């Protein structure tokens, strides 16, 4: 057994250090976790995401106390019990609904920040990959949660998305993915019903949150060793800078400790975010709660327009303009394309996109293309919208195919 | 400053996306119908009939085309004549005392007995003067199916459950008198729930308001009583279903499911939003609709008051939080540059 002080009083600092190494842990994770000084408010998005996820967990715990995962009572347990009979139930529900939508806005900002500053390469690949894994998990969490109020859009979105798995027939890519009755297996029935609702309830409130929490820890851990990037992509000598900082030469040092210096800025940005967030919760929540979902699920009445929530629209639009099987492949490509970013970007430079020549153009084109896809994904698929959507979907695929070539020609800075 | 520039870029792309998926997309998905400001002059009915003629002209089968076109032309002429007559009656000065005598004829059905007649329970008329528009009442007495714009359901509008009124109150002056009587004597101070029950509640339930087609569901002492009542409700619903083609939807939360513009224009002319629907025009006056709307908001969006009471406090809390956080940040970063 390691050495420990027998005279130390229980739970005193020494006693805790001998047993849990609290001082070391504090240093490693907080007071001597060095962050570059040269950053802007976009570096606070990680903490904002953590805070929003916290809000989702807390509001979700209150909601799950009253929600009933039964196709007969689910709709009214949300729209009546929680909204009228539970004290502040409406507040928890609106926080949960708005946070579920806003969390994706912050995820996209966080993601595009990473792409813009090249924060996915040169030792930071695992940060990017675990982040993308979180994106996929959040998507699954959002989709499963959207089923729970059991409104018209829950039902029909569930129908449309599970139908995608009906594409794996003997006609799919020459039969390599021929899986019979996959859709029925996923639904537990021929149409979305009680089995469907129960299993999505389980996924939403148990399995997925559990996995998400694990991957968040992994994401943070992936960050600890390569350190955070900075807004010029400079390679910071963390050891030297840390020494300077500890000696009191804070001006010469290029780094700051996570706690309290970096955190003080995070909390300030978070304050601004919460003002906006609660403005949305109290006065402008309609964007996060689609009117169609206030009609109870009815398997005999297809809504005039079926569309996913805004954060899925870009990938939905990559699926939609093609024939079914081609669309399925394109959709599959869209889901994994961003995972491949660290390997498709062949340039050795870590720098803001605007200083990387062709890649700068690539970045802004990609951003605009995804916004175009998002908007076209919601519009009815007719006339000129169809054409624009088709071109935007092709552009998305072509941009990814071009990426290795344009980054390979990039000169080393 | 650089941070503000970055914020402007982020805000710009966020707002463009928001505009695209919310206001713009919804404007493309739902056709906009202009409100006729709760005046009932048949404008929309005549326009619809004109449009039907245009549609008929595109039929390729010559035989069928001639037939359909003929019917469409006749329909347009009927609608024009009908609403012109309504306008004429509207100009007459009614006599409430004379109207009261004729009104006695209405009481044969509109007696509050709660019995279903020909598909629905005839409404009590105690509040009709406050709820319904004058022109609409004139039109309704002249020809109920034409007034409520569901004449497409009947070969002969006499077949409408209230069709017989066409033979009971016929002279223009007589109609003007009855309407004058209703508009001056059948007036009450409306409440939202009463307005809903009178205008909508005989076909539409509102379960969050504890209303079925038979009104407020009372508390029962025994399960047997509750089940007996439930059977009565199901019987009534079956009759409505047979009459309307399907059970009209429960309106508990329709306030959240449809836009304000949809509700307002749908209530004035259901055909404008759902062509072919069997829902009749109800003929609510502007004030009558305001009351119905208040009830739908109460059951559909019950947290509105609480939201508006709590919202400012939470936001002020976070503004103060942000200011304190800014001071902390400044003190932490003061030696760094």
Write the layout of secondary structure elements.
The complex is a heterodimer of chains A (413) and B (337).
Chain A lengths: L12 H8 L1 H10 L2 E3 L8 H20 L9 H12 L3 H28 L8 H23 L4 H12 L18 H6 L6 H31 L13 H9 L8 E3 H26 L29 H7 L4 H14 L3 H4 L13 H21 L4 H26 L5
Helix pairs in contact in A: 1-2, 3-5, 3-11, 4-5, 5-6, 5-11, 6-9, 12-13, 12-15, 15-16
Chain B lengths: L1 H28 L13 H15 L4 H30 L4 H8 L24 H4 L2 H9 L1 H4 L17 H4 L3 H14 L6 H8 L11 E2 L2 E2 L6 H22 L9 H4 L2 H9 L1 H4 L12 H15 L3 H30 L4
Antiparallel strand pairs in B: 1-2
Helix pairs in contact in B: 2-3, 3-6, 4-9, 6-9, 10-15
Most extensive chain contact?
A-B, 51 and 52 residues
Tally of helical runs of chain A: 16
Residues in β-strands, percent of chain B: under 5%
What's the oligomerization state? heterodimer
- Would you tell me the overall average pLDDT of chain B? 93
Structure description:
The complex is a heterodimer of chains A (413) and B (337). Helices cover 62% and strands 1% of the residues of chain A. Chain A has 413 residues and is mainly α. Chain A folds into two domains: 35-298, Up-down Bundle (Cytochrome Bc1 Complex, Chain C); 307-413, Helix Hairpins (Orthogonal Bundle). In chain A, helix 3 packs antiparallel against helix 5, helix 4 crosses helix 5 (89-116) and helix 15 packs antiparallel against helix 16 (383-408). The mean pLDDT of chain A is 93. Chain B has 337 residues and is mainly alpha-helical. Chain B folds into two domains: 1-30; 31-312, no CATH class. Chain B contains 16 helices and two strands. In chain B, strands 1-2 form a two-stranded antiparallel ribbon. In chain B, strand 1 (211-212) and strand 2 form a beta hairpin. In chain B, helix 2 packs antiparallel against helix 3 (62-91) and helix 4 (96-103) crosses helix 9 (172-185). The longest helix of chain B has 30 residues, at 62-91. The interface between A and B is large, with 51 and 52 residues.
């Amino acid at each position: 057994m390691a050495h420990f002080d027998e005279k130390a009083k229980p739970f005193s600092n020494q006693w805790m250090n001998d047993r849990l190494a609290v001082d070391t842990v504090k240093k490693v994770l907080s007071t001597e976790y060095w962050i570059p000084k040269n950053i802007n408010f976009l570096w606070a998005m990680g903490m904002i995401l953590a805070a929003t996820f916290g809000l989702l967990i807390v509001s979700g715990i209150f909601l799950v106390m009253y929600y009933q995962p039964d196709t007969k009572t689910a709709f009214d347990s949300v729209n009546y019990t929680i909204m009228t009979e539970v004290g502040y139930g409406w507040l928890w529900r609106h926080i949960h609904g708005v946070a579920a939508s806003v969390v994706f806005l912050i995820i996209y900002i966080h993601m595009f920040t990473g792409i813009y500053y090249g924060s996915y390469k040169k030792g930071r690949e695992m940060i990017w990959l675990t982040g993308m894994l979180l994106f996929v998990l959040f998507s699954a969490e959002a989709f499963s949660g959207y089923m729970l109020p059991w409104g018209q859009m829950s039902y029909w979105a569930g129908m449309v998305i599970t139908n995608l798995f009906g594409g794996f027939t003997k006609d799919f890519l020459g039969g390599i993915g021929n899986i019979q009755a996959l859709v029925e297996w996923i639904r537990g029935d021929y149409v979305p019903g009680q089995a469907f609702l129960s299993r999505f309830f389980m996924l939403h409130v148990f399995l997925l949150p559990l996995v998400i929490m694990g991957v968040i820890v992994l994401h943070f851990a992936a960050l600890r060793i390569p350190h955070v990037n900075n807004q010029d992509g400079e390679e910071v000598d963390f050891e030297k800078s840390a020494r300077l900082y500890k000696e009191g030469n804070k001006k010469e040092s290029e780094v700051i400790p996570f706690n309290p210096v970096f955190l003080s800025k995070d909390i300030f940005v978070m304050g601004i975010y919460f003002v906006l967030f609660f403005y949305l919760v109290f006065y402008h929540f309609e964007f996060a709660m689609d009117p169609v979902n206030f009609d109870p699920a009815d398997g005999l009445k297809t809504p005039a327009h079926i569309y996913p929530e805004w954060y899925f629209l870009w990938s939905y639009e990559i699926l939609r303009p093609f024939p079914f099987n081609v669309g399925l492949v394109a959709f599959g490509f869209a889901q994994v394309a961003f995972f491949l970013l660290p390997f498709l970007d062949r340039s050795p430079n870590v720098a803001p996109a605007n200083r990387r020549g062709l890649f700068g153009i690539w970045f802004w084109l990609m951003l605009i293309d995804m916004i175009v896809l998002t908007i076209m994904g919601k519009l009815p698929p007719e006339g000129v919208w169809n054409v624009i959507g088709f071109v935007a979907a092709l552009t998305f695929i072509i941009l990814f195919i071009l990426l290795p070539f344009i980054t390979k020609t990039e000169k080393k800075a | 400053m650089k941070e503000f520039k970055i914020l402007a870029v982020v805000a710009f792309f966020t707002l463009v996306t928001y505009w695209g998926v919310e206001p713009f997309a919804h404007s493309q998905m739902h056709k906009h119908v202009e409100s006729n400001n709760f005046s009932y002059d048949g404008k929309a009915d005549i326009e619809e009939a004109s449009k039907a003629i245009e549609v008929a002209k595109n039929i390729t089968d010559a035989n069928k085309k001639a037939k359909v076109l003929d019917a469409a032309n006749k329909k347009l002429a009927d609608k024009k004549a009908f609403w012109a007559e309504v306008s004429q009656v509207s100009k007459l000065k009614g006599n409430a005392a004379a109207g009261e005598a004729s009104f006695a004829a209405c009481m044969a059905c509109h007696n509050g007995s709660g019995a279903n007649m020909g598909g629905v329970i005839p409404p009590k008329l105690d509040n009709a003067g406050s709820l319904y528009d004058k022109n609409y009442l004139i039109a309704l007495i002249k020809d109920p199916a034409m007034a409520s714009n569901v004449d497409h359901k009947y070969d002969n509008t006499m077949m409408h459950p209230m069709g017989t009124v066409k033979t009971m109150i016929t002279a223009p002056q007589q109609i003007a008198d009855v309407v004058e009587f209703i508009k001056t004597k059948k007036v009450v101070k409306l409440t939202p729930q009463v307005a809903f029950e009178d205008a909508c509640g005989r076909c539409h339930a509102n379960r969050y308001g504890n209303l079925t087609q038979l009104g407020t569901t009372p508390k029962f002492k025994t399960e047997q009583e509750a089940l007996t009542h439930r059977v009565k409700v199901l019987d009534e619903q079956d009759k409505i279903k047979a009459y309307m083609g399907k059970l009209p939807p429960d309106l508990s939360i329709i306030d959240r499911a449809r836009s304000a513009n949809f509700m307002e224009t749908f209530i004035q002319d259901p055909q404008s939003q759902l062509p072919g629907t069997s829902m009749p025009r109800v003929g609510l006056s502007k004030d009558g609709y305001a009351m119905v709307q208040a009830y739908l908001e109460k059951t559909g969006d019950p947290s509105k008051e609480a939201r508006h009471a709590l919202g400012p406090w939470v936001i002020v809390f976070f503004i103060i939080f942000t200011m304190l956080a800014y001071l902390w940040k400044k003190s932490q970063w003061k030696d760094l540059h």
